[in-house]
Structures are given as C-alpha cells and as structure tokens.
Amino acid sequence: MAKIKVGIVGGTGYTGVELLRLLSQHPNAELAAITSRKEDGMPVADMYTNLRGKVDLAFSSPDKARLTECDVVFFATPHGVAMAQAQELLAAGVKIIDLAADFRLQDLASFEKWYKMPHACPDVLRESVYGLVELNREKIRGARVVGNPGCYPTTVLLGLAPLLEGRAGASPLVDASTLIADCKSGVTGAGRKAELHILFSEASDNFKAYGVSGHRHHPEIVEHLQTLHGGPVGLTFVPHLTPMVRGMHSTIYARIDPKARDVDFQKLFEQRYADEPFVDVMPVGSTPETRSVRASNMIRIAVHRPGNGDQLVVLVVQDNLVKGASGQAVQNMNLMFGLPEDAGLGQVAVLP
Ligand SMILES: NC(=O)c1ccc[n+]([C@@H]2O[C@H](COP(=O)([O-])OP(=O)(O)OC[C@H]3O[C@@H](n4cnc5c(N)ncnc54)[C@H](OP(=O)(O)O)[C@@H]3O)[C@@H](O)[C@H]2O)c1
C-alpha cells in the first residue's frame, strides 16, 4: 500500500514538532511538506535536533509547500488558518485535520464570540467531524475534515462521558447541572512563543489559575457534553498553569444522583473503555501521574468516591501535546485512511 503523503502547516510550533516526531515513526505516512513562514529554508533537524536522521525535509513557506498534492494536511496553526484554506484543499481531494478551533464548534455564534472572527466556511464546518475518537469513531472514518479536540476538552469529555452518555431525562447517574472541572496544564499548552507569563522566571516555581470567568474551551466542552448527554449541562471549568513542560491533570467533580447510589462507578468506567486502546481506567484507589503518560498517546483515568459519599471525583491525565493534540490527530488520520487506529502510536510513556 502506498504511503499517505502528509503536509503540516505550522511545523515549528510544539504541536507541529510533535506531529513530526510521531509521523517520522509511522509505518504508513510519508512527510511531504512542512511549513513555516519565519523559517523558510531551514532544515527541520537544525531546529529540532531530536529529528536528526529521521526527518530530512526543510521548512518551506506555505505558498511553496504544494499542499494540494498531499493526501492529508494537518494544521498545527492558530485558529483561522485552516478554515481559510479548507475549500481549496478539499477541492483538490485533500483531507484536513485541524488542531486549532476552526472545526470544533458547530455553534457559529459561539465560535465568533470566542475566536473574534467570522467563520470562513460554515458549509465545511457543518460536514466536519469533532475528532474525539472515543465518541465519534465511525463518523471520523468517513470524514474529509476533522476538528481535533482541544487539550482540556479531551480530558473533561472522556472523564465525564461514561456518566452522561444518553442519560438526559432517563435514569441520571449524576447531576448534570453542577459539574466541575478543575484542570492543570503544562506550559507547552501555551505554544512556542515569547510571552511574559510563560517566561521561565514567571512560570516556574509558581502555580496559578487563569480564564476563571471564561475560557475558550468552556463552550467546546459544553457543546460536546450536551451532544453526548442529549440535554443541557452546567459546567464550572477552571484551568491552571502548572510549572511542567508537558502534561495535563484534570480533577472532575460530579454529584451522584440519589437514585444512583448503588451504581458501581469503577465498573461503569471499566466497561465503557474496555475496548479503547488509548484509555486506561486504573485500579480502585489510583492517583494517575502526568509522567505516566508523558510522550505517549495514553489517557489514564481513576474514579474515586471519597467516604463512599455522594461526590464522585474523576482524575484524568494526558500529555497535552500527544493525546491532547498531535497523537489524537494521528489517531484521527489512521481512521480516515482505514489504517489500524494505533499505527505509529505505540510509544510507551517516558518515566521518570
Ligand atoms: N500546545 C498545546 O498543548 C495544544 C494542544 C491542543 C491544541 N493546540 C492547538 O494547536 C494549534 C497549534 O498550537 P502550538 O502550541 O503548536 O502553536 P505554536 O507553538 O504557537 O505554533 C504555531 C505554528 O503555526 C505557524 N503559524 C502561525 N500563524 C500562521 C499563519 N497565519 N499561517 C501559517 N502558519 C502559521 C507558526 O509558524 P510560522 O509563524 O513560522 O509560520 C508555528 O509553526 C493551536 O491552534 C493550539 O490552540 C495546542
């Protein structure tokens, strides 16, 4: 079988280099084009020395990259870039996986409010699929355009899906109106750029919340929670910046419905994710660590019920750059091209 010709727009960013790392080890993918406007002509391995001997391409400006000759193009760019090029690529038969937010929200008003720009191609948005594989596997197989989920949304949606799926109105397990997601991200979540709040002397040896009164990932999480639930959902979402390079830890609180007191929540999670290659429901009493998923596409979940009371606490860890971004994007590519879902994604986490 011929290899899939892959283009990456935004190859110098953190999700871009993570795509390069994963795709350079992928048995069915051939890197054909990698763009950067600032580093046009620079060999990739000169910037990212971990790729020496693995990637022999140079960055090229997007206009020279011949993206229409690829089978799939990943956009590892800020929002607004993928939607500006989507129609031209689709017309040339190229599939699209956007790591930004252009194809994550079906609610156009919400997109425009949070991303401060009109959507360039609502028709393409309507046919696109939200690329959270564990929820949308079959739709992704047939998709031409995938909106790869945000990092926080991946942890919160997978942490809540077993509790809410299809349960609006009928035998609720938890109170869907008072959900809380208390989430922490490593600094690479902010991208590779020079900004004051992510300087070493600002972000290291420090811990703080941000976006408490509103964050772009909140509407994304709520839209997809409501879809899977089949009814309204109330969520308080508080992200934090934590002094790690990569990694994400989400602590999710859900109030157990009085009629669901006798449910075995550990078993519920184990059964829901039994066949998922990248979701590990850990044994009772576990406290998953971010380093247990570092550089791998795994997400690990632990379910707690302190004092056997009515508060459920779900702990979720992932690598924000892998399952939270580029690994999940490769998982989507595998499905879109009929490959084994785990092709090129067998990396074991780096520990310690
Ligand atoms: N970091 C994470 O943990 C994470 C997780 C999930 C999703 N995401 C999303 O993934 C996307 C990329 O994130 P990142 O952290 O990798 O960003 P980043 O480190 O800031 O890199 C952005 C990349 O996009 C390129 N770029 C910027 N503006 C462009 C334009 N107008 N046209 C073409 N290329 C452009 C940049 O290169 P040049 O300027 O040289 O062209 C650079 O290579 C973002 O939308 C982000 O929200 C990030």
Automatic annotation (TrEMBL):
GO biological process: L-arginine biosynthetic process
Reactions catalysed, as given in the entry: N-acetyl-L-glutamate 5-semialdehyde + phosphate + NADP(+) = N-acetyl-L-glutamyl 5-phosphate + NADPH + H(+)
Sections of the chain in a coiled coil: none
Listed EC numbers: 1.2.1.38
The UniProt record lists the keyword NADP: yes
Active site (catalytic residues): 151
Swiss-Prot/TrEMBL keywords: Amino-acid biosynthesis, Arginine biosynthesis, Cytoplasm, NADP, Oxidoreductase
CDD domains from the UniProt entry: AGPR_1_C, AGPR_1_N
Example GO molecular function: N-acetyl-gamma-glutamyl-phosphate reductase activity
Subcellular localization: Cytoplasm
GO cellular component, one term: cytoplasm
Pathway: Amino-acid biosynthesis; L-arginine biosynthesis; N(2)-acetyl-L-ornithine from L-glutamate: step 3/4
Residue ranges occupied by any Semialdehyde dehydrogenase NAD-binding domain in the UniProt entry: 5-143
Classification via InterPro entries: AGPR, AGPR_AS, AGPR_dimerisation_dom, AGPR_type-1, NAD(P)-bd_dom_sf, Semialdehyde_DH_NAD-bd
Family from the record: Belongs to the NAGSA dehydrogenase family. Type 1 subfamily.
Role played: Catalyzes the NADPH-dependent reduction of N-acetyl-5-glutamyl phosphate to yield N-acetyl-L-glutamate 5-semialdehyde.
Protein name per Swiss-Prot or TrEMBL: N-acetyl-gamma-glutamyl-phosphate reductase
Native source species: Pigmentiphaga kullae
